[in-house]
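FAQ: What does the model actually see?

It sees only this:
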Amino acid sequence: MGVEARANLDGGGPVPHSAEDRAIEEAIRRGDHRLALSLCARHHGTAVGRLCMALVGSNAEADDLVQETLLDAHAAFAEWRADGSMRAWLFGIARKKCARLLEKTARRTARLRLVHDAERDGSAEDLMQLRQRAESARTALSGIKPSEREAVVLRYASELSFREVGIACGIDEAAARKRVSRALARLREVVKE
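And it is asked to produce this:
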């Protein structure tokens, strides 16, 4: 995404839609929800999966949540208003699915998996340092409120604009900025300790 588009997203202007999102919107308008679902899975499924993985910490659960998110999106296509980007809308659905799963399984903290052992090559010392950093990040994230943790993950791990974070969290852009700012301040305090 170009600097101008990112500035436009953060500045509160209309969310520019990608060619992929325009194709999805057109399929929804035509009533071809099966095609829209296929396009959502193709263009946004991986990003939704990364978000779910970041929030719940389990590949198997993340895969299930992606499927549930896409099924819920399919069921809601008829009511979709195109207020924001398709990606932010899908992330909003996924975030709620993740929150319900975390509540249902009584997990109080999200686990952010920063190190993928299979993807890393290097010395054992490097791998150990990466694991320690990942554990430190998980510990720091567990020290902040779940709503703030979600906002930080959406903003930085999923690279959403503040406006898109707001859409995904069901709040306005200003509240999303405040939530991320508070989370970063709390993370700094936790890291100092």
